[in-house]
Amino acid sequence: MTGRIALRHITRLYPGPAQEASIGDAVLLIAGSHIVHIGREGDGLPSDWSADASPLEEIDCSGCVVTPGLINTHHHFFQHLTRAVPAAMSAPPLEWLFVSYPLWAELDPAMLYAAARAASAELLLCGCTTAADCAYLLPQDDGELAAALVQGVAETGIRFHFHRGCMPTLEGDLEERLAKVMGTRVATLMDHDEAVLSRRLEDVIGRYHDDDPLSMRRVALGPTGVTYTRPALMTRLADMAQACGCGLHTHFHPRPDEDAKAAPDAPIRFLERSGWLRPGTWLAHGTRLQPSDIATLVRTGTGVAHCPRTIVRLGFGVAPIGSFRKAGLKLGIGVDGAASNDQGNLLSDLRLAALLHRVAEPPELWLTPEAALEMATAGGAAALDRPEIGRLKPGLAADVSAFRVDGLDCAGAVADPLGALLFAGTENRAWLTIVNGKVRVMARQLVDLDETRVAADLNAAAARMLAQAGHATGIDFMRKTSVQELVSQ
């Protein structure tokens, strides 16, 4: 055996799905990229482990809750460049996009590299071991932007689902409105030439998609939103993903104008007819799903990424996640982009998800701490169609997170360690994060990266984006803007 790690004296280990019993005073053994043993300290260690003389790192996890590595099923790494922009702080969805697109039009490889590295590092620090990034704003990319994104992520060591997205159209009437401030540059935001787009997608799949069971990088396809006016493109993307073994992903919580565009079909029927609803497809948000929509998603094995903080930030309706779970829907949690979060911390969002749905659903559908954790682990793995992650079990990937529950923030919550972490805890960093058998976070610090440098590089890139967009458009992004002012533009 090589690359051995032993997590000893774990206060409480939660192996996966909510119905599986947790283990107190536990031990977890890792060899290479796999978990090889889970048990209780008092039961002793396997004889072959004890006899092995290869290097061993033992980590004392007393005072810790140990869980499967958290899985982030929806993000936009590039949006780390536009966190807490004053002009967008009080804007509802379309007006928020009206402010944001002129900024994002300035995106270049150096900016995207800095954002991807920072977003991935922040996720590792909160115990996230797998992240799906919806990178839809790459319309003019001949490979440099994709390479910068992949490089930034790879330097952190997180397991990566690269959703190579596209933007055939802008939302609502934004194309017409943005033309007034961006001129002809608004066209550079969109993917107009489907033949060029197809070649670029095929190139990304060929370069970056790895379907090995323990793959550190996979590719998914799909537009940022369902493109009802270009059904042939939706079908082409579904066929390409099927042929290459890739996933499919898009935002889906149709507005009334989208209902009209999908007519005479319902939006969910349009997706099914386009070949989109199947295992390996997951949809972001789902805040407007009807009971019949939920039943269709369950029947087809399609997943949903619930993004609780974006719901609050942009004023979406509260997703009925208790009803989703009761129906058997594959349900994960997503951080979403930092321009609509504005954090990038999955543990923080997991805590919010455990409570937010209670304002909209009856008590019998409220999530337990175990059910909430399942969404961020096994549920996310199911949505991404990754059975080898999301659980702690011998033979599965060694993606493991540990969180301290012996601090002042959890003091008094001695009855339930997981409840202490999710309901009482305020510390947003994991004490330990292991990805594919490699320690990436130890004692709440990044092992392989200089956190100060990562932050400084992102700040410099963000300042450059703000300056360039302000010069190009005349918009004062530093001024808090009212909704009325935005709507009038």
TrEMBL record:
Keyword rRNA-binding found: no
Classification via Pfam families: Amidohydro_1 (PF01979)
Keyword entries, A-Z: Hydrolase
Molecular functions per Gene Ontology: hydroxydechloroatrazine ethylaminohydrolase activity
Taxonomy, superkingdom: Bacteria
InterPro entries tied to this protein: Amidohydro-rel, Metal-dep_hydrolase_composite, Metal_Hydrolase, MTA/SAH_deaminase
Protein name: 8-oxoguanine deaminase
Species this protein is from: Pseudolabrys taiwanensis
